[in-house]
Design brief:
mainly alpha, 3-stranded antiparallel beta sheet, globular, disordered C terminus
């Protein structure tokens, strides 16, 4: 299964996009769940992930691991130094709350990225913890993962509407290009003046 290469800078600005649409300061739990649900919707609707995230099945539900590492890094709790000064400049984290110190660079996000992030922010951004936890524990991707283990992208895709089409799209090296038989290729002749 083809996976989008992780883009750390895009992850930061996707997170900022969500944070700037939630009450200030935003709850880290809700921000991370917004990123999870936005990515699911983007996979469903557009056949790709927003920034190449990997999700883990933690105690309180699916967690976008790279986004969580950025939050822990800014809060001074990361296991390693991400050497990501832009995150330190753009985010402020205080244990369970996160605030934006600046606006997201929307040039890094496609319109479809922003639409899914906005939709998830509206649906899950202020949802109470218990309700969001219960909701996010559903599904084979979460249930099939080991506790604290990686959720398989294939399992996540299998939960989506039209899962076969999404999986086929992700396996295609050149999605969107026409597939023609070699012997039936027609070459147009240039016009003469």
């Amino acid at each position: 299964m083809a996976k989008v290469k992780f883009d750390q800078r895009k992850a930061l600005h996707a997170m900022l996009f969500v944070v700037t649409r939630l009450p200030n300061p935003a709850n880290v739990y809700n921000v991370l769940k917004c990123l999870y649900y936005a990515d699911r919707k983007h996979l469903q609707e557009y056949g790709r992930q927003i920034y190449g995230e990997t999700f883990y099945a933690l105690e309180h539900g699916p967690v976008p691991s790279a986004a969580y590492e950025i939050i822990k890094y800014v809060d001074g709790c990361a296991k390693w130094d991400l050497q990501f000064p832009e995150a330190l400049e753009m985010l402020e984290v205080n244990a369970i709350y996160v605030s934006a110190r600046g606006a997201p660079d929307t040039d890094l996000l496609s319109r479809s990225d922003m639409a899914c992030l906005l939709d998830a922010s509206r649906k899950y951004g202020t949802m109470p913890f218990g309700r969001l936890k219960k909701l996010s524990h559903k599904g084979n991707a979460f249930e099939n993962a080991d506790p604290n283990g990686e959720m398989k992208l294939d399992d996540l895709i299998d939960e989506l509407r039209d899962a076969g089409a999404v999986a086929s799209h992700l396996k295609d090296r050149n999605p969107g290009e026409a597939h023609a038989k070699r012997d039936s290729v027609h070459h147009a002749k240039p016009r003469t003046a």
